[in-house]
Amino acid sequence: MVGYFDRFLRRHMNALRLARWGVPDCAGHPGPVVVYCNHPAWWDAAVVILLAGRLFPKRASYAPFDARMLARYAIFARIGAFPVDLDSARGAAQFLRSSRNILAQPDAMMWITAQGRFADVRARPLDLRGGVARLPELGPDTLFVPLALDYAFWEERGAEACAAFGAPIRACDLQALPRPERLARMEEALTATLDRLAADVIARDPARFTALVSGAKGVGGVYDWGRRLRAALTGRRFEPAHRVEEDLLREKDRTP
Questions:
Q1: Residue 234 sits in which domain range?
Q2: Which end of the chain lies in a sparser environment, N or C, as judged by fewer CB atoms within 10 Å?
Q3: N- to C-terminal Cα distance for the chain?
Q4: CA–CA dist 190, 193 (Å, integer)
Q5: Does 129 share its domain with 162?
Q6: CB half-sphere exposure, 23, CA atoms < 13 A
């Protein structure tokens, strides 16, 4: 599935970019890891699968999934998704029971869209669901890592998928707080990570990111065929991108 979504993103987006300051600092953690993120778009599942496969290939990844949606996208159940009824107390108990079993595995990694619904990346407060604040009680050796996701159109036909991991929080530090304060701390950490990532996205500066996946450039079809032919006839190298990143970097260097 990592290979599938890699090809899928290359076809439909310009790039998956990881902020240089937002590289995860948890790869060597000896216990389980919970990554909790915002939920701005349908693309989140594809981006999470790619991040898990590229950055944490040795960990077993799991993710709660809306039971109704999992029935429609059954393939996700085969790669670590487990069903949760988001609208009932039974669903909450189901989520905690599955999470307890997962967090008992030292090499496990849970990826949670903690808002539990689609929400605009600019919406504040984030209103994270309370269930994520129960997890420190289930896995005392767990590390909790906020993950910010953002999407924007820059110079190319396809959009930029941008991501950044925030500073990890130990379960024992969260356990020391009452649940409402625990949830508030987790939400504050994710909000700060989102705000910092937003500044990089607004800057539209590729140098602030590492491109984990780069998509196809240009318009495609007859239009790019004509451009390619003109380049060949004039002895120039054909560059399908609207503006290559090297040009953007040179432009930045010339700016006082």
A1: 217-254
A2: C
A3: 45
A4: 5
A5: yes
A6: 10
Q: Which of 72-81, 133-142, 169-178, 236-245 has the lowest mean pLDDT?
A: 236-245
Domain count within the chain: 2
| Residue 43 and residue 163 in one domain | yes
Which pair of structure tokens corresponds to residue 240? 């399908």
Question: Which residues lie below 8 Å from residue 165, measured CB to CB, with a gap of 6+?
Answer: 22, 23, 24, 25, 26, 35, 145, 146, 147, 148, 193
Q: Over the stretch 21-55, which tens digit does the pLDDT of each residue have?
A: 999 999 889 999 999 999 999 999 999 999 999 99
Residues 153 and 233 in one domain: no
Residue 1's pLDDT band (cuts 50, 70, 90): confident
pLDDT at 240: 56
Asked if 34 and 142 sit in the same domain, the reply is yes
Show the CA angle centred on residue 57, arms to residues 54 and 60, nearest 5°.
130
Structure-block tokens of residue 188 = 């504050």
* Report field, pTM of the whole predicted structure over 0.85: no
Gap between the Cα atoms of 115 and 119, Å rounded: 8
Rounded Cα gap, residues 15 and 158, in angstroms = 8
Return d(Cα 33, Cα 112) in angstroms, integer.
11
C-alpha 227: how far from chain center: 35
Evaluate the omega torsion of the peptide bond into residue 125 and state whether it is cis, within 30 degrees of 0.
yes
Record the tokens describing residue 39, joined without a space: 């939920």
d(CA 9, CA 230): 29
